[in-house]
């Protein structure tokens, strides 16, 4: 039996591939692992059956035999450790790739998500216009640091790894913000990730769910 992941029945990102199940789909495609998807509604995510898999009532979850995992980073790391293709064989390079996974989730994602939430839910607040430049500048600081580290390299540390997979999925949250355009090397890095065949397969799979929901 293939593993099963959960995804939004009706994703709020409208098929842009920014929900966190995209990270797991991409990882599964990179390692050539077939998988099933169970779609869940927002109501079902807060019910006991789903909370038994994800105590915070979110997606994605991952079930494989008697193993159940939550948190996209933990799931991707699990896959990368058990299948070739997402972590280097050499021990130090492997550890560096894992460090980049943590950097994507702990250093880059928080200010990016905070900016995204402000743009989505705070536009009608009296303090929105004053607060927005501060949030944008926090993201710019991280993008500048990442740009300097990336330089002219295709990937963060040698060959493509789970670190790049997580970083690209985090950075894609900025696609509509215009901020990536200020850092052409980072924008090109994201584009390289999006051009990978495994990414395209994962993206098309999640987009098909949105399109099906839109027609129903």
From TrEMBL:
Determine if Transferase is one of this entry's keywords.
yes
Sorted UniProt keywords: Transferase
Keyword Chloroplast listed: no
A GO molecular-function annotation? transferase activity
* Listed Pfam families: GST_N
**Domain GST N-terminal, chain residue ranges per copy:** 8-87
Identify this protein by name. Answer: Glutathione S-transferase family protein
Q: Which organism is it from?
A: Bradyrhizobium niftali
């Amino acid at each position: 039996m293939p593993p099963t992941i959960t995804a939004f029945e009706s994703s709020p990102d409208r098929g842009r591939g920014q929900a966190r199940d995209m990270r797991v789909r991409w990882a599964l495609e990179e390692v050539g692992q077939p998988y099933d998807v169970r779609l869940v509604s927002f109501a079902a995510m807060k019910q006991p059956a789903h909370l038994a898999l994800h105590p915070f009532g979110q997606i994605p979850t991952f079930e494989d035999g008697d193993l159940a995992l939550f948190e996209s980073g933990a799931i991707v790391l699990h896959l990368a450790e058990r299948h070739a293709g997402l972590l280097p064989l050499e021990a130090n390079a492997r550890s560096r790739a894992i460090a980049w996974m943590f950097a994507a989730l702990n250093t880059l994602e928080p200010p990016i998500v905070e900016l995204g939430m402000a743009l989505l839910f705070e536009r009608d607040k009296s303090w929105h216009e004053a607060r927005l430049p501060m949030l944008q500048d926090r993201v710019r600081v991280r993008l500048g640091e990442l740009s300097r580290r990336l330089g002219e390299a295709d990937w963060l540390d040698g060959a493509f790894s789970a670190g790049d997979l997580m970083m690209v999925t985090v950075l894609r949250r900025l696609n509509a913000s215009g901020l990536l355009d200020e850092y052409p090397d980072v924008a090109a890095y994201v584009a390289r990730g999006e051009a990978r065949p495994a990414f395209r397969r994962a993206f098309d799979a999640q987009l098909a769910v949105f399109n099906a929901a839109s027609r129903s």
